[in-house]
TrEMBL record:
Residues 147-157 have a biased composition (Low complexity). It comes from Drosophila albomicans. Belongs to the UDP-glycosyltransferase family. The chain crosses the membrane at residues 525-549. It comes from the Eukaryota. This is UDP-glucosyltransferase 2-like. The gene is LOC117574833. Residues 158-168 have a biased composition (Acidic residues). One of its GO terms (molecular function) is UDP-glycosyltransferase activity.
């Protein structure tokens, strides 16, 4: 065959191969990719982490992401547009200007019930009154297809600020992914945008409100409340307390939702349904739990357990990321201890007495090197023991995955707990607020953690707890077993999350997965009306029998009198 013919054949094969790859092996199985809206109203920055992980994975498959949240963007991700309404950002900053550790350390309630109730109402007002939200609602979508390479990934709204980037007018979102914590305001936006379908990422594993509204069975007897610290099995007193806690919390939530509904109607119009009605139409729930780290539970077909979807292996070579940090960890004679109190705790506001307590204990462990996430002043860091290194921020997963790490001292945040199990690191937990107590209780129950109460913390108790976890092999064996369970899945949590996200898009909301139970009342769902009807029938039958017996008795007495 001549050279021109060979060349033509080669070109033809190349074109065919490219066409086949484009048609059959495209990153997204839903055509050219979809416009996806993500919204989290979470009051701590950790709520963004699962969305970041899922968003990156979806972008790689050709989807376009718009992410609305209350925190300034830390970095640029191609294909991801972060909308950070200024009023929401400022509200969360003011609301979270708290001293959680200080309150818990002093034996006080870190967050009052009133503060917990007012957050979804006030945060919703801040979001819906912001110009950035108004522009989002007017445009219907912010696409990234025509954005320039130099466009910013964060859109922060101020009064009079112009739109950041032009997109296709009239386009719409094929899917919304909403945080299962405080989702009601976001659902109002989703409804107003007429999004085809929405799904949840339940960032708080023990929170069951969104599951229950979707028709998922939430039996109080085997579902410890998120604000409690019980583990399974619960004895009778615990079950009574747990049941009352669920009922009381549901009542408070219902009262709160009346205010939120009023807020939605005020900003979005009277046609907005009640938040409970909106929530019942959720297409799918990505539950941030797994039987390896949370109690096993019954789940409907539109629920998938994706705990640790943000987890990843450590950097292959930590020295390439941070030479000083790598050398410090490698040089530890007896191993490394890592201390971080999470994103919900402002490390700069840790009580001085607590910091001094930590320093005193670490000084008693000279053969262990300690890494501490702490925004301390220069005068403080100069007085630290030589075996302690302090930084404002540390690459947590790279540290947890380091071969020299032996112990993670944490506040009990869910993501930190998941990362510790993923990397096989025992825990010492100092719970602060919200779900920290129930997370710590579960970790202790599973055998891979020790728990200490901040209000009762002393230098000796902390030292003994650290010594126990470091030298008792049962903690390491337990966490390695849990790690094996977490890793033993058909597909990684992130791949499962991506699959189900695209499944919902492909099937236009996947309504065939939704349970009819989501539209049933409490009375109907638990067949109380059936028991009532059957009880009524039985009582009526007994009453009729009573009347019949009395009638027969009367006839018998009448015959007896005639005979006499």
């Amino acid at each position: 065959m001549s050279w021109p013919n060979n060349c033509c054949l080669l070109i033809l094969l190349t074109i065919c191969g490219c066409c086949w790859r484009w048609c059959c092996c495209s990153p997204s199985s839903s055509g050219n990719g979809s416009n996806i809206l993500m919204i989290t109203m979470g009051g701590t920055k950790s709520h963004k982490i699962p969305f970041w992980a899922l968003g990156r994975a979806l972008i790689k498959r050709g989807h376009r992401i718009t992410f609305v949240n209350g925190f300034q963007a830390d970095f640029h991700v191609d294909g991801l547009v972060e909308v950070t309404p200024k009023r929401l950002v400022q509200y969360i900053r003011n609301y979270t200007d708290w001293d959680l550790v200080g309150a818990r350390y002093a034996g006080q309630q870190p967050l009052s019930i009133f503060d917990a109730i007012r957050y979804p109402i006030e945060a919703c007002n801040s979001l819906l009154s912001d110009p950035a939200t108004h522009r989002l609602l007017r445009r219907g979508v912010r696409t990234t297809t025509t954005r320039t390479a130099t466009a910013k990934a964060s859109v922060t709204a101020e009064e009079g600020e112009t739109d950041d980037g032009e997109g296709e007018e009239g386009s719409h979102y094929q899917l919304a992914i909403v945080d299962g914590a405080f989702p009601e305001c976001a659902l109002g936006i989703v409804h107003s945008l007429n999004v085809t379908a929405f799904m949840y990422i339940n960032t708080v594993a023990f929170y069951t409100g969104s599951l229950s509204l979707a028709g998922n069975p939430v039996a109080y007897a085997v579902t410890p409340h998120v604000f409690a610290s019980w583990t399974l099995p619960m004895h009778i007193v615990q079950r009574v307390a747990n049941c009352l806690t669920h009922v009381f919390a549901d009542l408070l939530h219902w009262l709160c939702m009346q205010r939120v509904h009023h807020m939605l109607r005020h900003h979005l119009g009277d046609a907005v349904p009640h938040p409970y009605v909106l929530a019942s139409e959720v297409a799918f729930i990505l539950q941030n739990g797994h039987f390896s780290v949370t109690p096993p539970s019954a789940q409907l077909p539109n629920v998938a357990s994706v705990a640790c979807l943000h987890c990843r292996p450590p950097a292959a070579n930590l020295s390439q990321l941070d030479m000083e940090l790598s050398q410090f960890m490698d040089a530890a004679p007896a191993g490394v201890i890592y201390l971080s109190m999470g994103s919900s705790v402002r490390s700069s506001r840790l009580p001085a007495a607590l910091c001094q307590l930590f320093v005193a204990v670490f000084a008693r462990l000279p053969h262990h090197h300690v890494l501490w996430t702490w925004a301390a002043g220069n005068s403080t860091t100069e007085s630290l023991p030589r075996n302690v290194r302090v930084r404002d921020w540390l690459p947590q997963q790279d540290i947890l995955g380091h071969r020299r790490l032996q112990l993670f001292i944490t506040h009990g945040g869910l993501l930190s707990q998941h990362e510790a199990v993923y990397h096989g690191v025992p825990l010492l937990m100092l719970p602060v607020f919200c779900d920290h107590d129930v997370n710590a209780a579960q970790a202790v129950h599973d055998g891979y953690a020790r728990r200490l109460e901040l209000a009762q913390l002393t230098e000796e108790s902390l030292y003994r707890a650290i010594h126990d976890v470091l030298h008792n092999d049962s903690y390491l064996r337990a966490v390695r077993r849990r790690r094996a369970l977490l890793h033993d899945q058909l597909a990684s949590p992130l791949r499962q999350a991506v699959y189900w996200t695209e499944y919902v898009i492909r099937h236009k909301g996947a309504r065939h997965l939704q349970s009819p139970a989501r539209h049933m009342s409490f009375v109907s769902y638990y067949s109380l009306d059936v028991f009532g009807l059957l009880s009524g029938i039985i009582l009526l039958a007994l009453q009729l029998l009573r009347v019949f017996v009395k009638y027969l008795a009367a006839i018998w007495r009448a015959k007896t009198k005639k005979t006499v």
